[in-house]
Amino acid sequence: MATATGMRPDTGDIARMVSLPQPNCNLTEIDLASFQRLGIGPELLKRAGVVRVTDREARSTYGIGGTRLGDMSGILFPYFSLEDGHRVTARLRRDNPEIEACKTKNKYLAAYGDRRILFFPPGAKEKLENPDTAIILVEAEKSALALTAWAERMGRNDLLAIAMGGCWGWRGRIGIAEDAQGQRVDEMGPLSDLRYCNGRQVYLLLDSNIATSPKVQQAANALCRELQSRSCTLCVCRIPVMDGVNGPDDYIAHCGDAAMKTILLEASSIAVSEVEWPEPEPLGGELPPVQKFDAALLPGSLRSLVEDVAERMQVPLDYPAIIAVLCLAGATNRRAIIQPKAADTSWTVVPNLWGGIIAPPGLMKSPVISAITQPLTRIETEWRSEHDAEQIAYAQQKELAELRLSAWKEQTKASAKKRTETPPRPDDAVTAPVFRRLITQDATAEKLHEILRDNPAGILVTRDELSGWLATLDKPGREGERGFFLSAWNGDTGYTMDRVGRGSIYAKACCVSMLGGIQPSKLRSYLADALDDGPQNDGLIQRFQLLVYPDHSRNWQYIDRQPNTPAIADAERLYRSLTDLNAAVPLKLRFCLDAQELFIAWLTELEDKIRGDDLHPALVSHLSKYRKLMPSLALLFELADGGTEEVSLVHAQQAAAWCEYLESHARRVYSMIVSPQRQAAAELAHRLATGWKRTEGRFTVRDVYRNDWRGLKSPDDVRRTLPLLKDAGWIRRVVEQAEGRPSEVYTINPQLRRTQ
């Protein structure tokens, strides 16, 4: 064990370590040895409640992992409230995190939706009763425990190490606010636990990668600003960059207790004026980030085709991927269904889906759609040729039947005259061939309804520009067509059209999958109605669940090669196998046992999300339709990989990952409308940029609303707007404690003042 003299443990020490009693009887000997190397003994681990958990325990007991892929087993650090001592959340250090680009990913995880607090080691409450106790802020829980043990060994009862759970862990959800697009979202800000730092000596001791990581540097600068606003005496410590050393726990293990003491003694004090201000960010209409698409989410039979098209056309992988999955849905439609719940037979889902690509003109939407739908077009062409041949045979049979009927009529007339026996009427019934359809581009609602009457399996509608179709539905007198398409999205609803000229036509089940492209500017007007509760707010837009709006790479390469013919053939074989299924007796799949458990966890998380107050109603409407999306995707992926019995856990996880990816795009899509708060923030930013309060360099809430500026006419208007400017680096709040409540004073970024 590292001691106050800086000695490192020898092999004899390790042998003694592994024989120590295990807290809670579940940390392994290897775990204990690993902690002991950092100077953390079993008794401290026991008091801190540190335990080892299995994958199942992490998911079921602590709610960690949810629908994520991968093994969740590891060491769990519980977070306890200082106020009542109850566990609020926990953070898991996984044994086997994913590796991406030679770096670990999702190494630390907490339960979705848990309230974030700081990690206080045992004895924290008692130490904070002393106003002279200095606080050491670190990133990881292990670092806090290692420094707690170090302080005990060094006799420094006036030091308290607190972990933030990452360099940005001091920020989290502090309430509900309205974002720049008018949606109710989590209001992010400093955690209330930072109040324990107010007025104290604070050492900021982040991991050594602060020397090379812009993300950590940005977090450190922001935290310094926050601590300065709380009247802290701030010192910044630096851990040397060394092999095998990241956090202070590693440094203690490698260099000893005396070296750690030196780190604190050599800490640099930070004056208020030295805290770095960021470059002010623009405030107008920025799009939130979206997840990057991972080709591993695709079935193997479609992956090569998608990657080939994306590379040859130099488009984001999202484009061909989303079209390929929509083609998969269009080829299946009512030929297979899934029962999402184990016992409830009344809820079945038809896997027809709607979606498309959002991109400005000229970014290859139509060529991508044409390339990916090519296998379906081939099948449709064959069916058309078969129908043409059947139509010729039908015409011949009909003509022969008419001749036989005509001859019979003559014979009947002759028999009547001669009073002889009437000859039997020939069988003149000839059934017209049904034109099997798989795909259509530009059918009216009436014609599409007629096609669906003859093709109860359903059909795929493709549109180069969805905006034209949407505009058609908005025309006066076309309200019935909107109702028809809303029903067709369900996939299993019968529909009757009554027309004077055409009579009554009944389709037993209207099932439509739909794909296309749309320009961002043309989508905004429809979203405006959806967000503002206009006449088009009937859930039509929200039915486009596979709608993606990815970022475009600025790097372009000239690619000139033949299309991947084997990949096209693989996709065509898959689609043919699906179209051969009998819609009259569709395959009916359920989740396997493990997949059912995952679905329950996923659905519970979804319901908690959409039943809360955090989301805009339009986004709630969109996400609520994920109840159909997730089981539909799971079914489609199972079928694509050859399954016909039940949906496996792998495909359920795959579908859940798709939902997470698509949700990030949905949030971007619904962010395209600028909110009143964003407009008010732009108004105040304009005033600041043109010299308001130039001399003072600071202002109060009252200073703002007294001017009666647009969107800033009351204290509440101003308070809702200022966080946008604060997050964009235009202003900072300064806590000035006087008698009563703290004042609402904000300082202006000096960079703005210098350019005025």
Describe this structure in words.
By secondary structure, the chain is α/β, with parallel strands linked by helices. It folds into 3 domains: 11-274, 3-Layer(aba) Sandwich (Dna Topoisomerase Vi A Subunit, Chain: A, domain 2), CATH 3.40.1360.10; 295-379 and 441-669, P-loop containing nucleotide triphosphate hydrolases (Rossmann fold), CATH 3.40.50.300; 676-755, Winged helix-like DNA-binding domain superfamily/Winged helix DNA-binding domain (Arc Repressor Mutant, subunit A, Orthogonal Bundle). The chain has 26 helices and 25 strands. Strand 4 (98-100) and strand 5 form a beta hairpin. The longest helix is centred in the middle third of the chain and has 45 residues, at 374-418.
Highest CATH level, the class of the largest domain: Alpha Beta
Shape type = elongated
According to CATH, what is the topology of the largest domain? Rossmann fold
For the record, what is the CATH homologous superfamily label of the largest domain?
P-loop containing nucleotide triphosphate hydrolases
- Roughly how many Å apart are the termini? 59 Å
* C-alpha Rg (nearest Å): 33 Å
Helix-residue proportion: 40-55%
* Biggest sheet statistics: 5 strands, mixed
Class from helix and strand fractions: alpha/beta
| Total number of strands | 25
CATH architecture name of the largest domain: 3-Layer(aba) Sandwich
- Please give the order of strands in the largest beta sheet: 8-7-11-12-13
| Total domain count | 3
Spans of at least 5 consecutive residues whose pLDDT stays below 50 are 1-23
**Taking all residues together, what is the mean pLDDT?**
85
Question: How many separate helices?
Answer: 26
